[in-house]
Structure formats: C-alpha cells, structure tokens
C-alpha cells in the first residue's frame, strides 16, 4: 500500500506532466494567440508584433516539415529571431526556422550576419562573394593577398568563396575558402543537411562569412547572441527547455487554450496506475 506522501508526490508530478502535455498539444495559431505570447512579441516588436506573428504562421503553413515540429519549438525559434529584430521570411534570407526531427530551431542566414555587423557601426566595408572558374588568379593565406579578375570568368562553376571586411579604424581582413574546404567543413560540423539541401550556395556563403566575423570581426552583444544561437554548427539542445525560458508552461493563458478531448476513446480510457492509487488513497 502506497504511503500518503508517495501518492501526493506522484499526484504533483502527474499534474505537472499534464500541464506540459497540454502546452505541447496546442496548435501554433492557438499558442501565438494567447495573451502571454502576444505580450512577449509586443515587448520585442512593438506595433510590428501582429505583422511578425502573421509571418510566423505563414511560414509554418507553407512548410510541411515545420508542421511536424512541436509548435512550442517553432515559437521559441521565432522568439530568438524577434529578439535580434530579424524577419523569419525564408525568401529574405536573414533568419530561418529549420526542423531537426520534431524540433524546430533558429538558424541565422548570411544576410542576418551582415545586418547585425552593420548595426554595430564599426564596419566601413563588408562583403562575401562566390568565385567562379578563371576569376581567382592568386591567393596567399599568410599575407591575405588575393588577386581576383571578375572579367576572366570561364564558366558558371563556383570554385570557392571570398569574404572581406574593413573597419572604420582601418583594420581589414580577407579569407578565401575553396568549395572543397567548405564541403569538408560541412561534413565535419553541420548537424543537419536541411539548409544545405535547400540552398547549398547560401549556406556556403554564410559559413565563410561566419568564419571571418566570428574570428576577426567586432562582435556586439547582439552578434554574440546570434552566433551562439545559430544551430547550424552546434549540438542540438532540447528545445523544450529553451521554450520554458520563453514562456511559463504553467501560464493559465496557455492552459486555458488547451482543446478539450471529448472523444469516446478518452471517456472510456482505463485509469493509469497513479489514477488507481488516487482512488485507493481517497478510499
């Protein structure tokens, strides 16, 4: 016979588990429609919050792979993008919400890196470009001397990527990665092929630019957060834990929004072991 304390602990754990299930079973639209979520996006986006929320829903509805992800993970990823004030429209290329199994995570695009760098006000020039057959004449990785002749292109085949920046104080840096170097880096560090399958060139461009800025550039707090949150080259964390930081899973707004299951299966379902112990305890 279970003791009163053990049954009480089980009841507490059961209630917490039910609350988490309730939150995780909400649809994306229901989740974004709660007062708590609306308030959080309004704090980040001000009067642009409704438009931003609509863009999240449109992205979700247009991506079948995202619809297989937990809605809370999609919202959590979108919240990261909103914190950086970057749009999640996949056609713009600033930030992406990408699926990793049944979890969605934030991924920064190369345009997002450029945007965050420019916001620092420290860069005079910043650019990254693909080089084609015949364009690269010379590259010295030690002195960073690079000789490019864009008029000498022999074909549309890409052979590598060059990234460059110059700060207002005169400091400048250039790197060049061959296509083989990029592919080797992808195989070693990338945790998912989703972005690479969608647009290999865009991902390669971002990878080279990220290598340049993260090692040699001036990183504001905003940029540091973006680099740490970018999931392309880091271990995939449990997004459920991240989502708890975004919103309180015990928030009554979220619990109240939970659809009620009135199906016959739910009504006729047999009690679990804990339910039976509840009955025994009450008796």
Give a written overview of the molecule.
The protein has 283 residues and is an alpha+beta fold. The chain has a domain at 121-217. 51% of the residues lie in helices and 17% in strands. The protein is built from 14 helices and seven strands. It has helices at residues 4-24, 28-32, 35-45, 49-62, 71-83, 110-119, 179-189, 194-198, 200-216, 221-229, 239-246, 252-256, 264-267, 273-282; strands at residues 95-100, 103-108, 123-132, 136-140, 145-148, 158-167, 172-178. The protein has a three-stranded antiparallel sheet with strand order 3-6-7. Strands 1-2 form a two-stranded antiparallel sheet. A two-stranded antiparallel ribbon has the order 4-5. Strand 4 (136-140) and strand 5 (145-148) form a beta hairpin. Helix 1 crosses helix 14, helix 5 (71-83) crosses helix 11 and helix 6 runs parallel beside helix 9 (200-216). The relative contact order is 0.14. Residues 14-23, 234-250 and 252-283 have low confidence and may be disordered.
What pattern of helices and strands is seen along the backbone? HHHHHEEHEEEEEHHHHHHHH
Structural class: alpha+beta
Radius of gyration: 25 Å
Intertermini distance: 12 Å
Quick rundown:
The protein is α+β, with helices and mostly antiparallel strands and 283 residues long. 51% of the residues lie in helices and 17% in strands.
Topology, pairings included?
Blueprint: H1 4-24, H2 28-32, H3 35-45, H4 49-62, H5 71-83, E1 95-100, E2 103-108, H6 110-119, E3 123-132, E4 136-140, E5 145-148, E6 158-167, E7 172-178, H7 179-189, H8 194-198, H9 200-216, H10 221-229, H11 239-246, H12 252-256, H13 264-267, H14 273-282
Antiparallel strand pairs: 1-2, 3-6, 4-5, 6-7
């Amino acid at each position: 016979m279970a003791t009163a304390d053990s049954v009480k602990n089980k009841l507490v754990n059961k209630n917490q588990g039910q609350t988490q299930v309730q939150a995780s079973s909400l649809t994306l639209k229901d989740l974004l429609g709660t007062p708590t979520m609306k308030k959080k996006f309004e704090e980040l986006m001000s009067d642009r919050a409704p438009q931003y929320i609509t863009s999240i829903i449109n992205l979700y509805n247009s991506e079948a792979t995202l619809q297989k992800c937990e809605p809370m993970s999609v919202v959590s990823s979108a919240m990261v993008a909103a914190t950086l004030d970057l749009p999640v429209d996949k056609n713009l290329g600033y930030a992406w919400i990408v699926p990793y199994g049944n979890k969605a995570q934030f991924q920064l695009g190369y345009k997002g890196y450029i945007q965050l760098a420019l916001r620092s006000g420290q860069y005079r020039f910043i650019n990254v470009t693909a080089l084609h057959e015949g364009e690269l004449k010379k590259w010295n990785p030690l002195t960073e001397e690079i000789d490019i002749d864009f008029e000498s292109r022999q074909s549309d085949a890409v052979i590598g990527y060059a990234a460059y920046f110059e700060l207002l104080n005169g400091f400048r840096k250039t790197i060049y990665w061959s296509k083989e170097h990029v592919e080797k880096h992808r195989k070693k560090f990338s945790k998912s092929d989703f972005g690479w399958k969608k647009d290999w060139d865009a991902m390669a461009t971002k990878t080279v630019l990220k290598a340049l800025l993260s090692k040699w550039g001036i990183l504001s707090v905003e940029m540091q957060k973006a680099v740490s949150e970018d999931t392309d080259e880091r271990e995939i964390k449990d997004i459920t834990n991240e989502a708890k930081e975004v919103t309180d899973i015990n928030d009554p707004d979220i619990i109240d929004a939970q659809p009620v299951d009135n199906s016959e299966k739910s009504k006729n379902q047999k009690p679990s072991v804990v339910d039976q112990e509840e009955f025994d305890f009450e008796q």
